[in-house]
Amino acid sequence: MLYTIVKQNSYQDSVNLMLLTNKISTMDGINKVQIMMGTPANKDILKAADLYTEELEGAASNDMCIVVDTDSEEKIQEVLDETDNYLNNQAIASGKEAFETVRSWDKATKELPGANLAIISTPGQYAAEEAEKALDRDMHVLIFSDNVTVEDERRIKEKAHDKGLLVMGPDCGTAVVSGVPLAFANVMKTGKIGVIGASGTGIQEVTTEIDRLGAGISHAIGTGGRDLNDKIGAITMLDGIKALAQHSQTEVITLISKPPAKEVRDEVVQLLQSLSKPVVAIFLGEEPHNHEGNVYYANTLEETAAIAVDLVKGNPIKPNYNRLQAEVPAVTLKPEQKTIKGLYSGGTLGYEAATLISSGLNYDNSGAHEEGYLLNANGFQVIDLGDDIYTQGKPHPMIDPDTRIQYFQKAAQDESTAIILFDLVLGYGSHEDMAGALIPGIEKIQKDAQAKGKEIYFVASVCGTDQDPQGIDEQKAKLEKAGVILRDSNNQAVLTALAMLDIQIEEVQKELVPATETATVEITVSEAIQKLLTEKPNVVNVGLKKFTEAITANGGRVVQYDWRPVAGGNPRMRQILSVLR
Fold it and tell me: How many C-beta atoms surround the C-beta of residue 245 within 10 A?
């Protein structure tokens, strides 16, 4: 039976409520539970999950809604007690933080007068509005939120460009500015390689590989995944490239993107070829066979990092960085075990895996995909478990292991599965011990398979550094003890998995060819952008409080804007108040 409790004017951020939902769901006697704010989008999620009741009709966006499916009414009080206990503990922890918490933009700028960057992690329908408020206060913006319209993104990016500011996002998962990690970011050495990317986990993979290879980064600028769309026109990408070109400490520029619109790609490449600094570029999914002048094209994220490191160290560029670097583990497989299941928390890492596996299978994977599936052919699958379809009302798989474990189990039930391939992404914002959380599920699958007289192999890479809060060596040691075959990069993990099934990828030997002649591009960079790239940022964090930890731990200053939807989220009232302001 469904029971509904609506707590009026009790706003909590979405991550807190997702983790609370997971905690409550483990209680005995609870069939299903969902705890969400009463926004229209969340009500739709509750309807889709068959958890919608008439009591939710009057719930506003500021109201916390608890819906429990249980056979025992007595369980409701236990749920309420556990909810209050969890939220009280959150409040106590917040009271110990070394930063100010405010409830308005005016108070935020008063508490931190030099604020020059805002992180926006509100629900998507409010993000553009809050971003414009930051731009009006002459702040750069990182929009972590997704579900922002293309029209809103174009408008705020044009506004930022005109004001000499950067907008990173929407759906920008990571950035590192002047040594300060922002959102889901790793801690790494400072150095001379500047990174700009339209991909969160792509940036994380390249920058952590740079760190592993003994070099460091000056900055990592995220643009958001749609920036190179023809409707946006690479506004942030172009401004970010120019900023890195003018930054004196940056000697090599690295660009990461999925294939952009052709006219946008041409404009970006024309700018890259006009620079005096060497550039390493990867357009994931493309298969370049040459470098052009000062622009070096990579096929994999690992190769991107390796070329950048060799350039900054003055080493000669190799013709091939992508060959398998480790011995292939011996395997014992049943005749029907012929496929790989890739289950990824990082969308770009999954995209790279799908591209590599498709190449090994000689399969054209360029067509439309089912939601979340990056590859689904002949039993081979690669799934982005961070796709919206898997995260509605649930934490991202970098935060919570449950979805991944469920899909591990589903993959193991397929008789054709030989190898389960996955990533583990460390850093601020990610689970504090994801290896420890996944291992019980992995060990159970291995034990059940062995009881049936077969083996299922797990192959993985860990994206992180030895400075990350989780500790990469500890995470690797736990996985290896559980029998997981580990490799240093996603590329090496995929190549290993393919080789275990005797599937090879043709090696590409690249040559250096002269660059296409391009007109010199005049580069001017605003004072505001120059300041962002030369000083630790002063940040107004609008939304998810967990993003403050990385800032304060790495020398930045931050004020927490404890955001609530204006007028209870009522669209008409918000519009009226906006006009009156």
Answer: 20
CA distance 152 to 160: 12
CA proximity to 291, closest of 115, 451, 81, 514: 514
- Mean pLDDT computed over every residue of the chain: 92
Find the helix or strand (DSSP H, E) in which 297 lies: strand 295-297
Q: What is the tens place of the pLDDT at every residue in 127-160?
A: 999 999 999 999 999 999 988 999 999 999 999 9
Lowest mean per-residue pLDDT among 181-185, 226-230, 366-370: 366-370
| Residue range(s) of every CATH 3.30.70 domain in the chain | 2-88
pLDDT at residue number 580:
44
Whole-number pLDDT of residue 230: 95
CA–CA separation, 450 vs 330, rounded Å? Answer: 16
Match domain 339-500 to its CATH number in 2.60.40.10, 3.20.20.100, 3.40.50.261, 3.40.50.300: 3.40.50.261
Q: Where in the chain is the domain with CATH 3.40.50.261?
A: 101-321, 339-500
pLDDT tens figures, 244-299: 999 999 999 999 998 898 999 999 999 999 999 999 999 998 989 999 999 999 99
> CA-CA distance, 11 to 565, in Å (whole number)?
9
Q: Which residues make Cβ contacts (< 8 Å) with residue 416, sequence separation at least 6?
A: 336, 337, 338, 339, 379
Q: How many CA atoms lie within 13 A of 488 on its CB side?
A: 15
Token pair recorded at residue 185 = 């970011």
Q: Which residues contact 315 (CB under 8 A, 6 or more apart)?
A: 309
Confidence of residue 62 (pLDDT cuts 50, 70, 90): confident
Q: Is 315 helix (H, G, I), strand (E, B) or coil?
A: coil
The answer to whether residues 75 and 66 touch, using CB atoms and an 8 Å cutoff, is no
Q: Is the pLDDT of residue 97 over 90?
A: no
Instruction: Please give the radius of gyration of the chain, using alpha carbons only, rounded to the nearest integer.
Output: 24
Strand bridging mode 373-377 / 380-384:
antiparallel
Going by their DSSP bridges, the two strands 30-37 and 64-70 should be labelled as antiparallel
Percent of the chain with pLDDT over 70: 95
| 42-51: long-range contacts, CB 8 A cutoff, minimum separation 24 | 42/393, 45/392, 45/393, 46/393, 48/392, 49/393, 51/2
Q: Which CATH number fits domain 2-88: 1.10.8, 3.40.710, 3.30.70, 1.20.1260?
A: 3.30.70
Question: Cis peptide before 397, with omega less than 30 degrees from 0?
Answer: no
CA dihedral 357, 358, 359, 363 (to 10 degrees): 150
DSSP state of 414: S
The alpha-helical segments, DSSP class H, found in 516-570 are: 527-532, 548-553
Paired strand residues for 344: 384
